Amino acid sequence: MRFTVRVWRQTGSEDAGRLVEYDVDDVSPDMSFLEMLDVLNERLTLRGEEPVAFDHDCREGICGMCGLTINGVAHGPRRATTTCQLHMREFTDGDTIVVEPWRAAPFPVVRDLVVDRGALDEVVRAGGYVSVSTGSAPEAHATPVARADADKAFESAACIGCGACVAACPNGSAMLFTAAKVTHLGRLPQGAPERDTRALDMLAAHDEAGFGGCTNTGECTAVCPKGIPLADIAQFNQDVLRASLRGAGGRPA
Amino acid sequence: MAVTGFILFFYVVAHMVGNLKIFFGETAFDSYARWLRAMGSAVLGESGVLWTIRIVLLVSVLLHMTAAIQLARRARAARPSGYRHRPPVQGGYAARTMRWGGVIIALFVIYHVLDLTVGWLNPHGVPEEPFLNVTSGFQQWWVVLIYTVAILALGLHVRHGVWSALRSLGTVRASHGPLARTVALVVAVALTAGYLSVPYAVLFGLVE
Ligand code: HEM
Ligand code: FES
């Protein structure tokens, strides 16, 4: 297969950046999108040009490092699939493919397609944990968890923190990510003690990081590689509302 | 956003139902309008309740718009540099048109008040004779066009708004997602149809 790839090149946060066009031929339909970029980079290196910087790690859809905006869609055209798991057979021979980084103020571009997603860590730091007594590991059956709660928590726990929800949201909001954490932990008995403060603190950290406000457009869940449902945001809103009504003051940041 | 949206929503529903009085004829419609001014007059005096409603609506609209502007500002700040290539994607059309839809509705409401409440822009224009104001206006095709555009915009706005507000208030259990979507759709379609029925009935001579 042969593609015209228009890639965002940006040398650093000071550079304005631009799309640069490359022709990539001899691409196998079985290659992943990242492997196609590997091929491009090998050729750029041979020509003595700077290879395209992009993030990746596991290449098996679980680490959340590999987010790219492909033809305007976070993680590309295939639903519930990370960029590393996207195959070139999803495209048509001869296609022009535009590749851009996630675009959001809290995700500054480090170089080319690499962005700093540290803002998500700040949100997690504000409440994405449960308090446990240290010492020996608790007995596995000590805290029973209802099957329905376990399933729901697990569904939300599937979030890999890739940031596609932010990239896709017209408001640049990270509510789907934050809601997934809140729903995951709040649903489990282990996470119940901090349920109120978690919701308020994580929301405050989310807003403080410069993410936009959610208006339930649903763009996020459509591109989420793990299919986190929009209902998690309703659950998050419910937790926030309940915590506010109970007067559970969040911790000072 | 959700709370003020619901206040406006309940008003819009009541207003639509009230408009249907026109199908009962001139006397019924005009006496309904008089009743709106008379209601609660024992307690708050002539038009007292009406003015209370007007003030609540005005405050709601202002707060609703303030919240919308804040959201739009935050959104712009969160994405200072946009995508070079971005197809109209994934989510719903109604959700993507809330901001412009809201602006259209707001402009319409100003026109609408000048048309049928104050009467300045109405061909008949006698505030005490609402039936004749309505029927003379809707004999003009361009008046019907303005109302049609605004009502369709309102339908879309309510379609996403009701659903979104239910979620913002966290009242929707995960398993009720599709139900809430259907409820919002049915309500929006009923509202649109109810409002549209009046201008088209006049235009086609069903009410005269
Ligand atoms: C006066 C002009 C209006 C403006 C400028 C306006 C603007 C907006 C905007 C920008 C939003 C945010 C939507 C989003 O991005 O998701 C919104 C939401 C909403 N609007 Fe309006 N709107 C207006 C009138 C109305 C009316 C007449 C109603 C009543 C039917 C209404 C009901 C709602 C509801 C229920 C929401 C959803 C709130 C939420 O998401 O929690 N709006 N409006
Ligand atoms: S590289 Fe790990 S999820 Fe794609």
Task: Characterise the protein shown here.
Chain A: Belongs to the succinate dehydrogenase/fumarate reductase iron-sulfur protein family. Chain A: It is an enzyme of class 1 (oxidoreductase). Chain A: Its cofactor is [4Fe-4S] cluster; [3Fe-4S] cluster; [2Fe-2S] cluster. Chain A: Residues 150-180 form the 4Fe-4S ferredoxin-type domain. Chain A: Its EC number is 1.3.5.1. The complex is a heterodimer of chains A (253) and B (208). In chain A, a hairpin with a 2-residue loop joins strand 3 and strand 4. Chain A folds into two domains: 3-111, Beta-grasp domain (Ubiquitin-like (UB roll), Roll); 117-132 and 140-246, Fumarate Reductase Iron-sulfur Protein, Chain B, domain 2 (Orthogonal Bundle). Chain A is of the alpha+beta class and 253 residues long. Chain A has a five-stranded mixed sheet with strand order 2-1-5-3-4. A two-stranded antiparallel sheet of chain A has the order 6-7. Chain A has eight helices and seven strands. In chain A, 33% of the residues lie in helices and 11% in strands. Chain A is elongated, with a radius of gyration of 20 Å. Chain B has 208 residues and is an all-alpha fold. Chain B has one domain. Chain B has nine helices and no strands. The model of chain B has no long low-confidence stretch (mean pLDDT 92). Chain A binds chain B through residues 6, 8, 19, 69, 71-73, 98, 100, 103-106, 152, 168, 170-173, 210-213, 215-219, 222-223, 229-242, and chain B through 70-71, 74-75, 77-87, 89-92, 95-96, 98, 160, 163-164, 166-174, 177. The complex binds protoporphyrin IX containing FE (HEM) and FE2/S2 (inorganic) cluster. FE2/S2 (inorganic) cluster (FES) binds next to loops of chain A.
Radius of gyration of chain B: 19 Å
| Total of domains of chain A | 2
The helix content of chain A is 25-40%
Supply the number of helical segments of chain B. 9
Cofactors, ions and other ligands in the entry: protoporphyrin IX containing FE, FE2/S2 (inorganic) cluster
- SSE string of chain B, helices as H and strands as E: HHHHHHHHH
CATH domain class of the largest domain in chain A: Mainly Alpha
Q: Shape of chain B from CA axes?
A: globular
Query: What's the domain count of chain B?
Result: 1
Number of separate strands of chain B: 0
Total beta strand runs of chain A: 7
In whole angstroms, the N-to-C terminal distance of chain A is 52 Å
